[in-house]
Amino acid sequence: MSIFGNLFDVFSARPEAASKPKHAVPERTRTRVIMLCKEIFSNFQAGQYAGHGDYIGEFWEEIHRLLRFRHGRTQLIDGHSNSMAEDAFRFVMTCPGEEFLDFLEYIFQVNCWFHLAYAPDQAVEDINALLRQENLPYYLTKFVRQTGREMVHGGPFGGEEHEVIRTIALPKVVMRENEVMHAQAAAPVLELLRRPEYSNANREYMAALEDYSKDDFGDCLTKCGSAFESVLKIICHRKGWPYTQNDTAGTLVKTFISRTTLEPYFDSMLMTTAILRNKLSASHGAGAQSEQLSRQTALYALNVTASAILFVTQEVVSQIANRKQSLPNLFWRERP
Predict the structure, then answer these.
(1) How far apart, in whole angstroms, are the C-alpha atoms of residue 149 and residue 167?
(2) Interatomic CA distance for residues 267 and 30, integer angstroms
(3) What is the spatial distance between Cα 313 and Cα 6, in angstroms, rounded to a whole number?
(4) d(CA 171, CA 142)
(5) pLDDT band at residue 156 under the 50/70/90 scheme
């Protein structure tokens, strides 16, 4: 991997940033975020030191380096600055809004996180709370991690398998284009898919979000369909229901409905994601004519996929709960 990592894959460089002529982030929000960074990287929380060492200086130096390479400048602000930290601080407080949103992503790329008592996941939640305070149309996605087992080579544990957690994706700033849908579907489904058993579906849905941010709406629809099919296969596998890896959404939905309390008319509702993919994406070939997909269609596909995933997983949870009530002496260990 490049030594610059995700340096150039930031909000201002993605097509999503160009969807608005201006991204305004008020000075009060910037000040609050910087105050939060001071508490995090100095290990100072709730009026007392929560860890060992003050890394706020190191934090600003790393941010300064990232911003200098990002903008191709040896100094960020015109005029004299007493230090790299001051130069970076003044830039972050005065730069255009989209570049401040880049800074939010860079916060999670610095190396000094390893020395802190503050959890990076908590920082994502806290920054999102600050963005909501001013009703700004942006939010940070959560870390995407995958848990697995790997063989250790060398050292006292050489030749043994140990559980490892790998970070697949760092937090990114995305537009909160539909506040209600985000709260009711997008945010909960991103939380659900972080569970290890849904790792494949998680990668596919996150890839769909990435395609949407790049205006690649055809691939966005394709990956929405794949994510929903993956969730249905995971449920079938965990429940012991018959299926094959080559089953299409139509087959999987019929299997799901036949083994739950859902009425047959739910079939057409749950097939919406697959229909959009089959009719509008290039997953089955574009044919003689290609469809011109709109941003609204792709956003609808993301939202309806999130709603469908939540619906089927919650239906399984509800089914398990009903069985618990009918057999109260059994200790159920099933999970959706």
Answers:
(1) 14
(2) 48
(3) 33
(4) 5
(5) low
Residue type, 2: S
269 contacts 257 by C-beta, under 8 angstroms = no
Query: What span, in angstroms and rounded, lies between the C-alpha atoms of 143 and 8?
Result: 18
> Using CA atoms, how far apart are residues 210 and 219, in angstroms rounded to an integer?
10
Q: Any residues with CB less than 8 A from the CB of 176 and at least 6 apart, and which?
A: 137, 138, 139, 182
Across the chain, the runs of DSSP E, i.e. the strands, are 44-45, 48-49, 138-140, 144-151, 161-169, 173-175
Residue 290 · residue 172 · CB < 8 Å: no
Task: Specify whether the CB–CB gap between 140 and 104 falls below 8 A.
Answer: yes
Looking at the DSSP bridge assignments, the partners of residue 148 are 164
Structure tokens at 327: 């057999």
Distance, first Cα to last Cα, the chain: 36
Q: DSSP for 16-66, please give it.
A: GGGGSS-----HHHHHHHHHHHHHHHTTEETTEE-SSS--HHHHHHHHHHH
SS3 169: strand
- 134, two tokens: 């001013």
Q: Tens of pLDDT along 107-149?
A: 999 998 888 888 999 999 999 999 999 999 998 888 877 666 6
Q: 43: closest CA among 142, 115, 138?
A: 115
Task: Give the count of alpha carbons within 13 A of 320, CB side only.
Answer: 15
Whose tokens are 């596909």? That residue is: 301
What six digits make up the tokens of 297?
């269609």
Residues 6+ apart with CB under 8 A from 231: 198, 201, 309, 312, 313
Q: Which residue has the tokens 């730069």?
A: 95
Q: Which domains does the chain have, with CATH numbers?
A: 1-137 (no CATH), 177-336 (1.20.120.330)
Tens of pLDDT, residue by residue over 29-84, are 999 999 999 999 998 765 555 557 889 999 999 999 999 999 999 999 988 888 99
Q: Which residues pair with 164 in a beta bridge?
A: 148
Sign of the torsion angle spanned by Cα atoms 245, 266, 317, 277: positive
Q: How confident is the model at residue 303 (pLDDT cuts 50, 70, 90)?
A: confident
